[in-house]
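Input record (one chain):
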Amino acid sequence: MDNEAGLYVARASEGQPEFLTDVASVRAAIRAGKPYYVYVLHRPDGRPFYVGKGVNLRVLDHEAEARNTTRLTHKLNVIRSLFRLKVSIHYHLDSFFEDEAEALARERQLIQIIGRHDLGTGPLTNQTDGGEGTSNPSEESRQRRRESLWGDAADPERQIANNYFRKLATVESVTLKPTSTWRSATALRRNRTVLKMTSRQAATLAASAIQNRILLEPGALIPRRLHVEGLEFIIENGVGNDVRVRRRPRANRFWRKADRA
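The corresponding structure, as predicted from the sequence alone:
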């Protein structure tokens, strides 16, 4: 794939303009394009190191993640190395699409053409084949996901959550996320159907009740946020929606009815 990666870089240089190095230019180009786009992140010497599919300003999220989190991935390490060298990422907005499926297909195509570093086929730090985001994940990616969801996580905050939750239940994924790095929390919506309480949901409510010193009894208000070893965690969206019966928007709490005990 090395030759194909070289061909890709050569073709990329034909565009006008090709590389964007400042946020204002990236924003302007996205506003002028179609809803979905495929982008490539490059080192200053032109070597591509990541391919993605974006909507809105997704292409800029990688720099923010590298600056604001302690996550350790190949992609983020490359970006942080560029920070240390005081040089800019070179952005290439490869193509724009009205249809998301076409954008996903182009993302897969570029990853295949340029090649993945973890597979020894090219320079990209992508750890899947693209498209839906989980196809052909590397063993490193699989292991990191297993660790972050349940086992011994590299992130010390996730490790604290995992250790705490393991004392309450045996599950395949921990429902507590560190608020310092987890940016996916959304307002909860009550499920239309009342679901039978699972051991995972019960452990989640117990985890918050214990740390917030609330007695689990009919009518108890269970906060979504809790502190463990001085760190703040939040109950993830999925199980939060499942256990929510009534929510006070500002308090972001769950109402535990007697029939869900």
